[in-house]
Structures are given as structure tokens and as C-alpha cells.
Amino acid sequence: MVQRIYRVEFETDTKTKQVTAKLPTLNHTADFGATAETALANLRRLATGLIEILLDEGKEIPPSDKTEKGGVFLSLSSQ
Q: What's the rounded Cα separation, in Å, for the pair 60 and 55?
């Protein structure tokens, strides 16, 4: 089982008001939604799938981000 914690960055498009959530450490994986919560839920599904693909292909999973400085973090786990 692989478990990682990654720092999340959020941006809001000024025209559409869509919120983008991204994980810079995990290949800049990003997804969006009408709210930060929706964007984060979409990002969780996408990032979990990416980790599973990397594991299936025998590729390295980026290490967790350090959490000491605070912020928003996403905890991911995959078999």
C-alpha cells in the first residue's frame, strides 16, 4: 500500500469562477469544479488513479510534501 500527502494549490478563474486544485509535486496533476470542495474531490479521484497507473507501470511515486508550514494537503492511498 502506498500512502502520500501532497500540498494543494487553488486558483479561481476570474471569468468563469471555476476553482482549480492542483498538486505541484504529483506531476502538476490538476482538476476543477464549481467549488473548492468539488475541485478537491475531483482531484482526489484523478490523483489516486495516477498513482495506481504509476504503480502498475513500476514507476516512482513522488514523495510526500512536508506539512510543517501548513496549508491544505490531500492524503492519498492506493493498493
A: 7
Amino acid at 39: A
Q: State the greatest distance between any 2 C-alpha atoms of the chain, in Å, as a whole number.
A: 41
Residue 79 — very low, low, confident or very high, per pLDDT cuts 50/70/90?
low
Give the integer Cα–Cα distance in Å for 36 and 52: 24
Give this prediction's pTM.
0.92
Residue matched to cell numbers 500512502: 3
What b-and-e string marks burial along 30-46, b requiring 16 or more CB atoms within 10 Å of the CB?
Answer: bbbbeeeeebbebbbeb
In angstroms, the CA 45 to CA 43 distance is 5
